[in-house]
Please model this.
Amino acid sequence: MISIDKLALNFLVMINSVLGVDQLPTGEDWKIKTGWTPCGHSLCLEVTNTELIQQCQNSPESFVIFPQVVHAYTKVESIAVSGAKTVLLELNDRKHERTESFYKEPALSCSRVADSAVSLQWSIKSPSHYFARFSYMPYISEARPFSFFPNVTLHMAMGSFLIFIFLLMLIALRSQIFTEPYRTTCFAFFFTSWYFILGSADYFSISMGMLSSHRFADIFLLIGLLNFWKIIYRYAYLSHADYFFLKWNTFASVLIQVLSNSNDGIQLGTSLIFPVKIIVATKFLVLNFKTLRAEPVPFLCVAIFLLSVINDILVVSGLVSLPLTLPIGILGCFYLMILLVWNDVEKELSNVEQLKSLSSELKSANEKLVVRNREVESLQSSLLSRDRMDQMGKLTTSFAHQFNNILNTIKSGLLLLDIESIPQERKLKSRKGIDKAINFGAELVQGIRLTSQNNQEMRELNLHKMVNTAT
Model:
């Protein structure tokens, strides 16, 4: 049964063959000691040069520029007349247990070459059969290669910048970090940053083998870019069909990279997705060309990304020898993403300001309502007090009237008792009337007391009947 790694190797080698990429360029001054030969699971190459070292000794301020061999271990040694070897330069690790840089072009200062050296030996150990190639033989130059800046320094700076923006967003949007589109934006920054960080793991003090660095870096890049396209889709710059195609193509690529046990298998997963991104980006530019004047930023950002991806595909494929420009393309993409998300942020900030204004107005209205309620309570208290005074006046008047009737009854009865001509039966009847009046008086006082205690109305006493009875 053919494994994914074997299929990947056959496919990538076929691509190299179709594109006409040579694994080993020729050079008059360089002698191939051993061609690309298997050494364990890797391919190794050794070449020597005697002419170049003499030029280097004559011009110690110059540099020997070595070509880029992606993911490979590189070692340069000087060989003395006695056959003793001195290591002058090493890039990455021979056992591929650490990663200094994916794409660095080594440069050797001629000042390090001893006068006793008679030849240079350049050794390469590539963990990838696909990347076991380079486009030119080493040469003498008066200056360091410019490619160190975009291939190493810019990658490191981009990784640091993206992780810084991610942390900044975590702090600024901590209360909304799990809501869209902020979650997707944070994922885009976080995962993409690790592609650049793991590509120069040693510089970030991360101890990781070349295979693991290659695997995780490429997986994180695919996930980060998928989150970018998700933002583009969210704001209707990408059709549902295109986003669906990108999403499942990314899933298939990541699955290949996870299941693969070689750098070639991992590279196959990465190689499958980028042509799709080129197609989608080109379609985006064609469909949005009419809106270039009205909305130039989305068009220009995706155009920069598209050009950078095409350039890096040509470089990685070995068709051209140019600096890598993916960091610039990523910067253009993420600038567009920030602009789109910032529109939502401004809307939310505007809503927050409106809520604050409404809250302030509501608070003011509530304070006025409290004052109004207090005024109403004060007025009700005043009316209640007035009503109580009115009731007290009526009660007092009624009591005085009723008590006056009782006194008149008693007085009338006493006058009748003093008249001797009045029959005894009449006097007896008068005494009973006086007793009733006294009892009614006591009942009247008791009623007033109960009224004050239980807040009940005093019942009316029919004293007129009592007076008529007494008289």
Q: What stands out?
A: Residues 456-471 have pLDDT under 50 and may be disordered. Strands lie at 30-39, 42-49, 63-65, 73-80, 85-91, 107-109, 117-126, 139-141.
